Amino acid sequence: MTYLPRRTTLTYLAAGLVTTALSARAARPYPDKPIRLIVPFPSGQGADILARLIGQLLAVELGQPVVVDNKAGAGGIIGTAAAARAAPDGYTLYMGSSGPLAIGPNVYKKVGFDTLKDFAPISNIASVTQVLVANPASQLHSAKDVVDKARLQPGLLQFASAGNGTTSHLTMEMFTQMSQVSLQHVPYKGSSSAMIDVMTGRVPVMFDSLPGVLTNVKSGSLRALAVSSPQRNPLLPEVPTVAESGIRGFSTIGWIGLLAPARTPPEIVGRLYAAVVKVLQSDVAKKRLTELAFTPIANTPAEFGSFLAKEVALWANVAATAGIQKE
């Protein structure tokens, strides 16, 4: 009989234990621990509102807590880069939107990620209308009023945004391009602080998501001038579209989707996609999404990936036409 040296025997035993542990881990059904959901914006913005709702429903469906982690800054770029660098094991997910994913790479020189290479799309969760809002004490009562005032004072009328490269910023750039006027951009660190200054009259106007402005519009703290969607929104039926207001052809809708870091195993992506579809079909989700002014989408990972490529190209054109210099 041949005896192995004690050190060699221990090495083999250790290797065997590690292999057994890894095999046991791989055999466990996903997920078997809490999931972190990165939101690249402060609390209260559209992506955060949706993430908290979907996170609660996914926690029930997946049997594990889904913890929202707000990593705000640079128009969503900081949180997005953090999500791109996370381990591709299904335990860090990302609630992305058009701002950091499609617009950000076209206005920042270094974002720390490649939208189409560094993420595994799971599903586009919902679309959201942008609303042109103004201080209720101002003389701006319509999108046409904004255009008329901008023509009388070229480059002097200010507009607020949630930050450079955000959806609220580029939606207004599209507005100025199609109406052939010039406005002065005042970027903020998040839509909440921008909205406060619009409500107090420090800045006269801005675009923001319907979920983010609806309560203040209903209370009279903000005046809704127009919606960016091709049709009027049932939650604000009296508010015309931008196109109805005289800027023909204007139509843009924000979106918020769920992604994972690239190289996340396909079976985990599939498990998450199936869970998203199931929760969005629930009566609870349908009711809350309607109340919060979101329109559910729930497309497949492949469809979401194709959509992302088109969005990146669309906003690259808007940024180039606006002459935005990458920071």
UniProtKB/TrEMBL annotation:
<comment type="similarity">
    <text>Belongs to the UPF0065 (bug) family.</text>
</comment>
<dbReference type="InterPro" id="IPR042100">
    <property type="entry name" value="Bug_dom1"/>
</dbReference>
<feature type="signal peptide">
    <location>
        <begin position="1"/>
        <end position="26"/>
    </location>
</feature>
<protein>
    <submittedName>
        <fullName>Uncharacterized protein</fullName>
    </submittedName>
</protein>
<dbReference type="Pfam" id="PF03401">
    <property type="entry name" value="TctC"/>
</dbReference>
<dbReference type="InterPro" id="IPR005064">
    <property type="entry name" value="BUG"/>
</dbReference>
<keyword id="KW-0732">Signal</keyword>
